[in-house]
Each structure stands twice: as structure tokens, then as C-alpha cells.
Write a structure and sequence with these properties.
five-stranded parallel beta sheet, alpha/beta, globular, single chain
């Protein structure tokens, strides 16, 4: 049984790397946002708008805990905030869990998020300067939780295939 959990800030490549790694390792790929949306029948944006962040984080914790406790093998891409709430970071070191922090610099995240800014409501209306400050502050606030992962893989200036190859070496 192999549970691979990918952690990192939005734009770090969790979903893209997770899908690629899934094909390489022939394991199912799961995405926390999709699992939550599927469970509640609403988008993450709708959940935040209608019920608020506290409700969202409660549901996120329940689903994350269920995934960690099940006996299946998979690759799970979490939301950027998943490890930062409800002691989810403690689950990253559960037995059978290979947690990997996809670490990206502020510069890398800014360049990636600028491209898809409209798809990210939380940053859609920020100026370029505000975006840099927003990301830097979040990374600082979340670093303790992200660094609870068993492995750290720097993604700056690397292709998805390079990152996946590095992860595969770590998991041998």
C-alpha cells in the first residue's frame, strides 16, 4: 500500500505532478478539491461563498482524514491550505504515508499564478505588487506545516518530468 500525498502552495504543481506521477506509478490520482466538490455537489468557490471558510475546512479535514485512514494506494493532491488546519499536518506522517512538499519560490509562484489568475478567485483581483506580498506572507505563515512533510522537492526551473523523476528516486 502506497499513499503519496502532495503538499504545496497553489501554483506549485500538485495537480500536474500528481497526474503525471499517477501514470508513471500506475496509481489512482485523487484531488482534494474534486473530492470535496463531489461530496457536497458544489464548487469550492460556492462552498466558501455560501458556508464560509470554517465550514469548508471542517469538511476538508473529514475527507482528508478518511483518505489517510483508508487502505488503498493512491496519489493525493491537497489544497494549498489543507495541512494548515485541524491538525491535518499531523496526518502527513501517518504510517504508510509518503508526504512530499513541492516547494516553489515566490518568484516561481507569481509567474505561474499570473498566467491563470482568473481561475484563482483568491488572487484574481490583486495587483502584481499585492500578489507578490500575498504569496510571500502565505508561504511564511504556512512553512511550518509544509515542512512537516517527509520529503521536500524544489520545483523551481524544473519540468514536470524532472520533478516526477526526482520523486520516484525518493520513493525507491
Amino acid at each position: 500500500m502506497k499513499k503519496i500525498v502532495l503538499i504545496g502552495y497553489m501554483g506549485s504543481g500538485k495537480t500536474e505532478i500528481g497526474r503525471f506521477l499517477s501514470k508513471k506509478l500506475e496509481l489512482p490520482f485523487l484531488d482534494m478539491d474534486f473530492l470535496i466538490e463531489n461530496e457536497l455537489g458544489k464548487t469550492v468557490s460556492e462552498i466558501f461563498t455560501e458556508k464560509g471558510e470554517v465550514y469548508f475546512r471542517k469538511i476538508e479535514h473529514q475527507i482528508f482524514k478518511q483518505q489517510i485512514e483508508n487502505n488503498e494506494s493512491y496519489i493525493l493532491s491537497t489544497g494549498g491550505g489543507t495541512p494548515c488546519y485541524a491538525n491535518n499536518h499531523l496526518l502527513l506522517n501517518s504510517e504508510g504515508v509518503e508526504s512530499i512538499y513541492l516547494k516553489a519560490s515566490v518568484e516561481t509562484l507569481v509567474s505561474r499564478l499570473e498566467i491563470n489568475r482568473k481561475k484563482r478567485p483568491i488572487v484574481a483581483n490583486l495587483s502584481d505588487e499585492e500578489l507578490v506580498e500575498f504569496i510571500a506572507k502565505h508561504l511564511f505563515d504556512r512553512s511550518f506545516y509544509y515542512n512537516q512533510c517527509k520529503y521536500k522537492v524544489v520545483v523551481d526551473d524544473k519540468s514536470p518530468s524532472d520533478v516526477v523523476a526526482e520523486i520516484q528516486k525518493l520513493l525507491l
